[in-house]
Fold:
Amino acid sequence: MSSPSSIWKGYIEDLEKNQQRMPVLYSILKHVKPVDVSDEKIVLSCENQGAKIFLSQRKLEVEASFAMYFKKSLHVEFIMAPPTKKRVESPLLSFEPTTDDLFERAGLNKKYSFNNFAVSSTNQVAYAAAQAVVNNPGNAYNPLFLYGGVGVGKTHLAQATAKKILENDQNKKVLFSPGETFTNEMIESIRENAGPRFRRKYRRLGVLVVDDIQFIAGKQAVQEEFFHTFNSIVSLGGQIILTSDRPPSSIKNLEDRLRSRFSGGLIVDVQEPDFELRTAILLIKAQEKNIGLDIEAAKVIAERVLDSRALEGVLLSIYAKVLGIKEKIDLEAIESFFANSQEKKRKKITPSDVIRTVCTFYNVKQSHLKGETRIESVVVPRQVAMYILRREMKMKLMETAAALRRKDHTTVLHAEQKISSLMMRDQNFKKEVDTIIQSLDSST
Structure:
């Protein structure tokens, strides 16, 4: 019987020839290793938690691919690869920096890695592109440009990519530099007449990660310097990774030559985390902090909390309430937490707060919002106010109508339905409403 390795090699080679069927799965499957292959089951070892979660979510698709190649049904099991044993040397004999030392020098945060990066449909293309850059830095996608809103994981993925490259080659010069830091260091170098030192630091790098690159837009001297830095690194075979809140085409006051350079690699939209990804993030956070949380409990939290950056805070808040009372976070504890939070919110926020916040956001006068004006620029904000009063403050129809000086409660019902429908169809409009609600939360 052939060895698991040879059987797996044949499958991967076949998948490579036909990778257009499932390119993202191929980019991840080629990095897993077979542990055991039998007539009924195949056990695969994943190099990090993110890959394991991604493949587990697509288990049926993977098994269907196996059935097509092996001509029979195979059950698949994904496990984590055991940690690699590192050679231990006496500190008296070796003064080599540790991996953590290298990360710190490169400006990389040790909490960001592929091991705790969860993958779903909203970021799977970005994840596959990052893996490709790790395997072939300077050649696969250069630059790799990741863009998206706040809290979608751009910085996490960019840093994880740089860290993995540095782990693979500890002699490579890697640097993580926020756009603001690059700007400030350049200004400081001009003030101190230290331009050559600044250029030596940046232009000879093997990997440069610039977070929030849109920060340099509109700054002529900074853009000039970054253009030459970019060209120098790429010409020497180095890798550039950039993150931004928008694609190059939408960055205002960005020089055309930089826009062209940024568009010359791969531009990936990292979207807001979906329900599955938020659930996976919660499970990873709970595992990191040794918090008991099963998948059903994680799903309930993920349904309630849409902001990925708020997930960890909510998890810790619930855990603080059950610590010493229960062994793990259960559904009862979650329901109690959200019920109390909602009650506190309703007590603190008044209808006047909602109306004032909506008017400020849309630049509408309160007298117009409560008046008889029927122009769209006033009607929509009025309906948004009704929606928030109903959905967030749980006010009754007649109470909501009275707050906006409406005579008929059916007007409120219509507004609630219309705004709900708009939010489902228009993601930009949904972001507007979510932003207003979040600003109300932060003000209490």
The beta strands are 33-37, 41-46, 75-80, 144-147, 174-178, 207-211, 239-244, 266-269. Residues 275-347 form a domain with the Helicase, Ruva Protein; domain 3 fold (CATH 1.10.8).
